Amino acid sequence: MAQVRNVRPGYVVIHPNRDKAICKLTKLIVVALLIASVVLMMILTIGGWSKLQGMKPVNFVWSGVYLVLAFYILRWARGLLPIAAALAILLLIIAVIAGFGLDGTSWFDRNHHGFAAAQSLFGGAGLSTDVLGSITLLLIPVEIALIVFAMIGFAQGWNVELEVPEDEARRRGSKPIALGPSSATA
Question: pTM value?
Answer without folding.
Answer: 0.81
